[in-house]
Amino acid sequence: MATTTRRYPTAPVSMWQKCKELRLEYYHGLTRAKEDGKLMIGGSAGGVSVIPSGLGDFIWFGGETYGGTMGADPEFSLPCLEATEAAGFGRDLCVYFRNYLGSMLLDRYYFGGSFPRPDFFIQSHICDTHSKWYQLMMDLQGVPFFGIDMPPGPWGDDRGADRVDYFAAQLMDCIEWMEKVSGREFDDEKFITGVFNEYEAARLWAEICLLNQNTPAPFGQKSLLSLFVPLIVMRGKEECVQFYHDLLEEGKDRVSRGIASLATERYRYLHEGIPPWHFLKVFRLMERYGAISLGSVYQFCLAGYWNVDADGTWRAPRPIKERGIELRSREEAVHFYSNLYLSNINYQGSFFSAEVKNQQTLQLVDQWHAHGVVMHLNRGCKGTGGYLMESRLALSEKGIPVVTYEGNSGDSRDFDAAQVVDNLESFLESQGLAKIDDE
């Protein structure tokens, strides 16, 4: 790898301030939900958060998003983790669950005041933790809970239609249950609007991620990790769609003018696995060598919707209007949404199949023009960390440079910063890179 340093023009992402405003408005909105006349509904950040749209105004309390936010602040999260352990829960469990539970046990909300108490919980059982997480919260907070079984297996086999029907039937049951526990009548038109909004926001996110195929990349992964928060916590809302429409327009403008996220970009890599939220300086460390992280399967797909061509190419789905799709009933909307939800690319590789995970990682390296891959072997999430070592082997067999480091996305006690820094710097130097200021 040549060490010649080229400097591209760069500029801050102007939509960052709007993203910050939406994020703070969301978290503070949780504390005043009842005052604002909103239902507060708890569940996974990657859960079926669009389903309550038919009940009217509501706010979704996403457990992983909150647990990750806590994990970025060890001073707050460590007492919460210790409270969870004192209650008898092991350190090998999902770190988002452990942060969330400890916050509830201590009755300390990260953004001030007491821990929020939702009106009810609904949760799709994506991994072993999820439904048990909110079953426990039902017992501890005295809040109704509805669990939804997630049919297993990679997408695209001959059981796909049966899985969609099975999942959709549970969502229909969930809607009837929500009407009973909330006392609100479910409005099908509002629900259909919510489904359209989620599809469009997630589709726009895919378009934004595709922009990083360009050199220089208009967005670094560290920025994308903040910019995708509205998509996680409010993806059925119109303001979410507008945010990603505006962000896409800014991204296109950056590409057209050659505006880089990293002025000294000369090495492009993927960062697979949830990053250590308490040590996001890992990205800044790499940037000192001119290395830019483009994203990951997790980053692109946690809430983004994609199409995959026969040759493996990833593409953003077309807008619903261009596809000629009309959702005229609750049943049609539920079935459409179930198909989207179960075909999520992130679940297929991370949770169900090493072969699929390998294909995904190799495709991203090729399509996003990456020189190498960095993998976080994250003890905090067994699901998204699945099959990473198999992917490492597949990359090595193709001659693609790869380095791994161990840690925990939300528990700083499981992280040796000095060792990680030494490991990553050695990898970069093995790629012929030196710190820019040392050249």
* SSE string, helices as H and strands as E: HEEHHHEHEHHHHHEHEHEEHHHHEHEH
Kindly state the number of beta strands: 10
Q: In what order do the strands lie side by side in the largest sheet?
A: 2-1-3-4
Q: What share of the residues lie within helices? A: 40-55%
Structural class, by secondary structure, is alpha/beta
Radius of gyration (CA) equals 21 Å
Separate helix tally: 18
Distance between the first and last residues' Cα = 14 Å
Largest sheet: 4 strands, parallel
Low-confidence runs (pLDDT<50, min 5 residues)? none
Shape assignment: globular
Q: How much of the sequence is in beta strands?
A: 5-15%
Overall pLDDT metric: 93
3D structure, described in words:
- The structure is a single chain.
- The chain is 49% helix and 11% strand.
- With 439 residues, it is an alpha/beta fold.
- The strands form 3 sheets. Strands 2-1-3-4 form a 4-stranded parallel β-sheet, with helices on both faces. A 4-stranded parallel β-sheet has the order 6-5-9-10, sandwiched between helices.
- Helix 3 crosses helix 4.
- The two termini are 14 Å apart.
- 49% of the residues are buried.
- The mean pLDDT is 93.
